[in-house]
Specification:
5 helices; nucleic acid binding; 7-stranded mixed beta sheet; RNA_MeTrfase_RsmD; 7 strands; methyltransferase; 16S rRNA (Guanine(966)-N(2))-methyltransferase RsmD; alpha/beta; 25% strand
Length: 183
């Protein structure tokens, strides 16, 4: 796993072979971040990384200068790996939480500039995730939410949807907090 750009550009972390998580590919990660830079300045932003898995997105957000990154992962081994990566970087901007994403979404009162969710593609609750984010008001005005998912999901009719990007088998749906103001 590699950090694409920013202050930790080029840093590599070896993912244990026993991991069940599939990290977002470097190709897909680099491309989606290229798209996202048109919408958001990560410097000084606050971010929430849901279903963090290997921590690849959290580390990328830290490298790009986010003030705070909250990384939520339920699996004990994956959480430990994320903590080890953060420790190796010596960066205090990331708060790794070992918790259930759905409990966090229901209890969270903080707003973020950016939220990224990469749930297991087989998770049956994927269609509800955008609604949970927006119903709880977790995004600041003009905040961005990105949901990584398989090809079987179409969010184009969601009121906050702004665009879809596909890189191989990796799909991203992008949402923005301000979308309903234009409706």
């Amino acid at each position: 796993m590699r950090i694409i750009t920013g202050k930790y550009k080029g840093r590599h972390f070896e993912i244990p072979r026993s991991f069940k998580a599939r990290p977002t590919t470097d190709f897909a990660k680099e491309n989606i971040f290229n798209v996202l830079t048109q919408y958001i300045d990560f410097e000084e932003a606050t971010a929430l990384d849901l279903f963090s898995g290997t921590g690849s997105i959290s580390l990328e957000l830290m490298s790009r200068g986010c003030l705070q990154v909250v990384s939520v992962e339920m699996d004990r081994d994956h959480h430990r790996f994320i903590c080890e990566c953060i420790k190796k970087l010596g960066d205090k901007s990331c708060i790794p939480l070992r918790a259930d994403v759905f409990k966090i979404l229901k209890a969270c009162h903080q707003q973020y500039d950016f939220i990224f969710a990469d749930p297991p593609y087989a998770l049956k609750e994927i269609p509800q995730i955008p609604d949970l984010v927006f119903e709880k008001g977790l995004l600041k005005e003009d905040g961005m939410f990105v949901l990584e998912h398989g090809k079987d999901h179409d969010f184009s009719q969601h009121p906050h949807f702004i665009e879809h990007r596909s890189y191989g088998s990796v799909n991203f749906s992008l949402f923005r907090a301000e979308a309903t103001a234009d409706a």
